[in-house]
Amino acid sequence: MSVYESDDDSVSEFERLESTLPDHLKRSASSLLEAISNTNLNSSPSTTPAPRENHFQSSWLDSGIPSSRTPSRHHHHHHQHHKKTQHNQLIQKLSRSENGRESSPIPLPRPKFNEEIHKPAMNTKQSSTGVLWVTERANEYGFDNGNPEWANLGQGAPEHGDTVPGSFKRPTSIPIPDHSKEYAPTAGIKELREAVANYYNETYRQDQPSKYTYKNVCIVPGGRAGLTRIASIISDCYLSFFLPDYTAYAEMLSLFKNFSPIPVPLNEVDNYEIHLEIIKNELIRGVSALLTSNPRNPTGKCMKPRQLEKLHRLCRERCLLIMDEFYSHYYYDDNCSGSSISSAKYVQDVNKDPVLILNGLTKAFRLPGWRICWILGPEDYINALSSAGSFLDGGSNSPFQYAAIDFLKPPKVREEMMALQAHFKMKRDYIIERLSKMGFDFSNGKIPNSTFYLWLNLSHLPAKLSNCLGFFHECLHEKVIVVPGFFFLINPQNLSSLEDVIWYNYVRISYGPELHQLVKGMDGIERILYRFGCLPYDLPSSST
């Protein structure tokens, strides 16, 4: 294979990554190639690392150099020749002078894209969520779950083994009593619903006269199923949600037509804080339902208790609050005491306040495969959610529901969460220390106080690395998985006005995996930065 063919494969490989993206995200690769085309166009290819420079800031847009997509009128007759020459230079710059590799070999098996295949009655515009997309792409590069060579820092699940000091042993078997072989009620078995209600009363509502009962609890087969049930029972309203947020919201908000979703982008300058003034403005324009994760995925931020209390006071009797609290126990502001944060503490009347709370065994109890989750709310909402389950998902696994009852005893939960918080805070501090040494900035409140995610800003990195798809592409060659930031643009109605808030300069990094995977992932990112000439220190010879 010639050098040209090898380099051509490098760009083709990157462009194929782009071709798998949803339409509104496909600007990434074209922007990257255009940015490279407008910098050092006439320089000859070099094998030396690229200087520290960010080609994705506005300066290249104003350079006056015509791009391959918008050629100058004065040079129109040279366009075809210029385009071919430019493409050759892009190939060499992308695969050789930028990343230090001779080429980026095509992964085997190659991705299978055939636009001509006819798929009767299938919605071919439905796209994968962010985590699923990155996993599909990584599989094309040889990744599979359990492969020790890979560091999956894209996963949205915590480590699930007996690896957390002080944590109870994960079950290796569960009893299957005869009565559990029947269908469970679509709202869940009464015993588990009572256990959930009791846990919330003991933990958050000891000083409140209004208490949850089993009638305020609906057991659902996973968080997505819970969100889908909620989406099916709300109607004739504007529903606001904030950006960035959980990628699976996009599918839920786009499939159902019984309400109008309204995206509300948050500001990068204040670390994506949800200010109550924003919510006031949403209520003024007629919003009567509000969806948010708290603590927030992907930023790792959490509303303070005082903010939550004011939020409930503001929305009580005016707006349905849908509070996704799956990371409520990954909370590090209370010295890893096992405490957590929940809207349940600020509900005055459990049957009047329009508040739906989602949580489950998935994250806090590190049992994502069990698919046992719950929704708390007023009885009328719970009855409607139960009815929706009869035609949407049929209800949760019955034996696992019975096995989950014992987990929810409040003293046991507190002990478990103390172990969980200490362990995950240690992992958070480890990757922040490693990334800080590599030149990433965590000053001015940028350290997350909850979840197990980092919302990592790439904008200071050179050229390809400052683009989340370019960074993701390089990580694949180091057997590291991250989630490109543009997947957290939840744009169910494909609003063109949202294009400017796509986060091309961010990736989400998960510290959910075990520590040895985090070490491997940080080592891989370190090698990438070294190849691009933007690591503030030298690597040992064995690492290069």
Automatic annotation (TrEMBL):
The keyword Transferase applies. InterPro entries: Aminotransferase_I/II_large, AspAT/PAT-like, PyrdxlP-dep_Trfase, PyrdxlP-dep_Trfase_major, PyrdxlP-dep_Trfase_small. GO terms for molecular function: pyridoxal phosphate binding; transaminase activity. Coiled coil: none annotated. Pfam families: Aminotran_1_2 (PF00155). Residues 71-86 have a biased composition (Basic residues). Keywords: Aminotransferase, Pyridoxal phosphate, Transferase. Residues 1-12 have a biased composition (Acidic residues). Residues 1-24, 37-113, 158-181 are annotated as: Disordered. Residues 174-492 form the Aminotransferase class I/classII large domain. Residues 13-24 have a biased composition (Basic and acidic residues). Residues 37-51 have a biased composition (Low complexity). GO terms for biological process: amino acid metabolic process. Its cofactor is pyridoxal 5'-phosphate. Belongs to the class-I pyridoxal-phosphate-dependent aminotransferase family. This is PLP-dependent transferase.
